[in-house]
Q: What sequence folds into this?
């Protein structure tokens, strides 16, 4: 394995990725990275986060809001609405 840059771990366990590494990986501020264990150590790579689709589409959510508003309830999340509907 070739060492291309080095960095220190802070007292909070944080590490600054050197500019050369960020450029090689084409990383910008706020992007996620993955740490993978390998026989030779830890590999750092770009990481894409896949977000699960919403539990309900807009039309379904509108129906839920309409039903719950009749009972005076409005839910901030799909999980709260699901629990309410199961209890009906």
A:
């Amino acid at each position: 394995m070739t060492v291309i840059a080095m960095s220190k771990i802070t007292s909070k366990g944080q590490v600054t990725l050197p500019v050369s590494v960020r450029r090689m990986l084409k990383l910008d501020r706020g992007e996620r990275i993955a740490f993978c264990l390998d026989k030779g150590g830890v590999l750092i790579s770009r990481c894409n986060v896949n977000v699960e689709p919403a539990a309900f589409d807009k039309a379904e959510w509108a129906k839920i809001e309409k039903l719950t508003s009749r009972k005076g309830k409005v839910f901030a999340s799909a999980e709260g609405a699901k629990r309410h509907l199961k209890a009906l």
